[in-house]
UniProtKB/TrEMBL annotation:
One of its GO terms (cellular component) is cytosol. Gene3D superfamilies: Glycogen Phosphorylase B. This is Alpha,alpha-trehalose-phosphate synthase (UDP-forming). Belongs to the glycosyltransferase 20 family. GO terms for biological process: trehalose biosynthetic process. InterPro entries: Glyco_trans_20. Pfam families: Glyco_transf_20. GO terms for molecular function: alpha,alpha-trehalose-phosphate synthase (UDP-forming) activity; trehalose-phosphatase activity. CDD domains: GT20_TPS.
Length: 484
């Protein structure tokens, strides 16, 4: 074994940066999205490397800007270069037209194109080659998400021994859905090449175990809780459930700042001190945005007393714009917003304010702080960080979290005061919103206080610590600062 201390090597499809070309010069800025939000505060000043695709097609010269970014970030970034064909086949194709819809119960949106599968394997091999180049035997490789389920298998095939853990950020489906995948047995076998496979919830893990039993009956499964072990052909992997979280204090502190207090006041004044209902999502068909707008329409039809008393603010961050279905969804949402506003607007009031852009963090937190009710109603979601960010930012503790029962966060947050809804039942969602308007504020305070307490205790640092401790009995703080 090579010398040197153990380092953490994170591998994900995307590097935690946004790349743009400004006048022929590559510019790198901190990125957005759930995974980056989750891991950046953890890696910062704790050492390690992050390997991933930059988002550009082909071999772009980003060595200098990446080195500069690495110095500032407190960890080093190493790019994987993908060609235009690889991006089409591995990323848009297999990852986002096969695994993403299938794992979120949208089987009818799947395109089981065999060329996508081959491209997925080639790209996983490419990522593995970069891991081999920059890591050493003693490192711990922590691979993230559905784009890279085959990475440990590739390392093993290359004869490169590494301790590897994997975390799936999206749900794992039950057998009646998963078994439709033409490459189902290969995916399950490859996941067992990781020493530890982490899921968001116990339900995802038990779905995986059910698929394993159906596809690989020769595997022996023992233990329970976070001690489940699977042995196949002499190799043992462990399966755990680790609900991801947020940097609670960062959100709470920002929400308490003078800057955010002023922005919150400005938003409230601009909306004439009406009650604020808020939705915040990447624009994705799993997030249930059209259904949520329908629920708002039902609210206005069934409870006319609420007309002109609230504004529903929907923030949508552009996502996967190159996939035609996402553009179709954008058009559908715009049409629905226009329709509902056209139906109910009065002079000086439109029910829905729709913002289609990524917002600076302080603005996002100000919206969270200003909102009386958060509508977090995905049709299916691995966890959903927005639900947790809203609670952390609700420093007045008067807000209400209305949460889909199909979000991974539901199990954890329902027992602490979130109001669960079925997002497909638009009348049911409208009734729960109406009830929240008429519930005593003391109840809201009690619930929000409990919600905030539970998220504060199980924050992002707790999540990383639970995973790493389970991986090899080492805590987060055991990782030394980055060398050199
Ligand atoms: P996502 O599907 O991206 O993540 P989510 O967990 O809700 O979903 O995270 C979205 C992130 O984007 C949040 O941090 C939010 O603040 C940010 N965001 C959304 N709209 C924004 C806007 N208009 N401006 C700025 N920022 C915005 C995937 C899985 C989830 C899982 C996470 C982490 O699909 O289920 O919770 O990974 O594991």
């Amino acid at each position: 074994m090579e010398g040197g201390s153990k380092r953490l090597v994170v591998v994900s499809n995307r590097l935690p940066v946004a790349l743009s070309n400004e006048g022929g010069r590559w510019v790198i800025k901190p990125g957005g999205g759930g995974l980056v939000t989750a891991l950046a505060p953890v890696l910062k000043n704790r050492g390690g490397l992050w390997i991933g695709w930059s988002g550009a097609k082909g071999e772009v010269d980003i060595v200098d800007p990446l080195a500069e970014f690495s110095r500032e970030a407190g960890y080093s970034l190493h790019p994987v270069y993908l060609t235009e064909e690889e991006v089409a086949g591995y990323y848009h194709g297999f990852s986002n037209e096969v695994i993403w819809p299938l794992f979120h119960d949208f089987q009818s949106r799947c395109n089981f194109n065999p060329t996508y599968w081959r491209s997925y394997l080639d790209a996983n091999l490419k990522f593995a080659e970069v891991v081999v180049r920059f890591s050493r035997d003693s490192d711990y490789i922590w691979v993230h998400d559905y784009h890279l389920m085959h990475l440990a298998f590739m390392l093993r095939n290359m004869g490169v021994p590494r301790s590897c853990g994997f975390f799936l950020h999206i749900p794992f489906p039950p057998p009646d859905i998963f078994l439709k995948l033409p490459w189902r047995a290969k995916i399950v076998r490859s996941l067992l090449e990781y020493d530890l496979v982490g899921f968001q919830t116990g339900r995802d893990r038990s779905n995986f175990i059910s698929c394993l039993r159906a596809l690989l009956p020769e595997a022996s499964i023992s233990g329970r809780g976070n001690e489940v072990r699977v042995t196949l052909l002499g190799r043992t992997s462990r399966l755990g459930a680790f609900p991801i979280s947020i940097d609670f204090n960062a959100f709470a502190n920002m929400a308490s700042s003078g800057e955010v207090a002023q922005k919150t006041k400005d938003f409230r004044d601009a909306l004439r001190q009406r009650k604020i209902l808020l939705g915040v999502d990447r624009l994705d068909y799993t997030k249930g945005i059209p259904q949520r707008i329908e629920a708002i329409r039902q609210l206005l039809i069934k409870f006319p007393d609420l007309r002109e008393r609230f504004s529903f603010v929907q923030l949508a961050v552009p996502s996967r714009e190159e996939i035609p279905e996402y553009n179709a969804l954008k058009i559908e949402i715009e049409r629905l917003v226009g329709e509902v506003n056209g139906q109910f607007a009065q002079p000086g009031w439109v029910p829905i304010q729709y913002l289609y852009r990524s917002l600076p963090r302080a603005d996002l937190v100000a919206y969270y702080r200003a909102a009386d009710i958060a509508l977090v109603t995905p049709l299916r979601d691995g966890m959903n960080l927005v639900a947790k960010e809203y609670c952390a930012s609700n420093v007045s503790e008067t807000g209400v979290l209305i949460l889909s029962e199909f979000a991974g966060a539901a199990g954890q947050l329902q027992k602490n005061g979130a109001k669960l809804v079925n997002p497909h039942d638009v009348e049911g969602v409208a009734k729960v919103i109406h009830k929240a308007f008429h519930t005593d504020i003391a109840d809201h305070r009690r619930n929000m206080h409990r919600l905030r307490d539970s998220i504060r205790k199980a924050d992002i640092f707790w999540w990383v610590d639970s995973f790493l401790q389970n991986a090899f009995s080492r805590h987060l703080n055991d990782f030394p600062p980055l060398e050199g």
